[in-house]
């Protein structure tokens, strides 16, 4: 299924709706948990940048899990950032989870500022992936890692079947048809994006994990 539309970010008027879905949908919650667990296991300490942070659920859960980390989330939507800031304040974690309005192609940080960069379910929005990854490379420390997670649109039938068994017909229909129609990429699209990256990463690759595609880089 082809994507119906492509926009750089979620419009402010839709931010509250997206935040509610991300907070309540078991499929999305499980993806967020997988990201939080994996990132928490793969960084010793330091600063993390979350690109396309949305309502900030991933950064907040990371700092809940690891009190030696600080996460900065950036998003194009000022409404999303307001929702994330409010959530961090409510959790009393504002000192370690902060949020800014910013574009991935022009990050307001100095060179080699972050130890780790992540992005969850945002990559499909990026209009210029190669340029954005070059900017991410700039703010990443030597030896730092980048983990980018997005929904896979061209999953094998057996994967779709497993999703239906786990989440039931209605939730799997929302994920596999409605959400994925816009918020997803194919393996081919991920490979093409990877091939266009000219930033000097020492390692890069793709992992397919069921309904999720992970792009990874090491500087």
UniProtKB/TrEMBL annotation:
GO biological process, one term: methylation
Top-rank taxon, per record: Bacteria
Domain Methyltransferase type span(s) in chain numbering: 49-148
InterPro entries linked to this entry: Methyltransf_11, SAM-dependent_MTases_sf
UniProt keyword annotations, A-Z: Methyltransferase, Transferase
GO MF terms, alphabetically ordered: S-adenosylmethionine-dependent methyltransferase activity
One Pfam family in the UniProt entry: Methyltransf_11
PANTHER family named in the record: 2-METHOXY-6-POLYPRENYL-1,4-BENZOQUINOL METHYLASE, MITOCHONDRIAL (PTHR43591:SF24), METHYLTRANSFERASE (PTHR43591)
Name the record gives this protein: Class I SAM-dependent methyltransferase
Originating organism: Candidatus Aquitaenariimonas noxiae
């Amino acid at each position: 299924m082809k994507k119906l539309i492509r926009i750089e970010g979620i419009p402010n008027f839709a931010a509250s709706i997206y935040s509610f879905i991300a907070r309540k949908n078991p499929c999305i919650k499980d993806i967020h948990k997988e990201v939080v667990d994996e990132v928490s296991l793969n960084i010793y300490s330091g600063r993390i940048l979350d690109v396309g942070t949305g309502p900030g659920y991933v950064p907040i859960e990371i700092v809940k899990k690891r009190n030696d980390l600080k996460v900065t989330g950036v998003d194009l939507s000022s409404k999303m950032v307001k929702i994330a800031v409010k959530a961090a304040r409510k959790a009393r974690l504002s000192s370690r989870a902060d949020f800014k309005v910013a574009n991935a192609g022009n990050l307001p940080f100095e060179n080699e500022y972050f130890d780790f960069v992540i992005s969850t379910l945002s990559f499909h929005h990026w209009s210029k992936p190669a340029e954005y990854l070059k900017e991410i490379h700039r703010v990443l420390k030597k030896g730092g890692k980048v983990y980018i997670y997005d929904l896979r649109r061209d999953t094998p039938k057996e994967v779709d079947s497993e999703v239906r068994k786990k989440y039931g017909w209605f939730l799997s229909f929302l994920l596999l048809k409605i959400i994925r129609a816009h918020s997803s990429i194919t393996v081919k699209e991920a490979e093409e994006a990877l091939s266009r990256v000219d930033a000097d990463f020492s390692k890069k690759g793709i992992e397919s994990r069921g309904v999720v595609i992970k792009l990874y880089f090491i500087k």
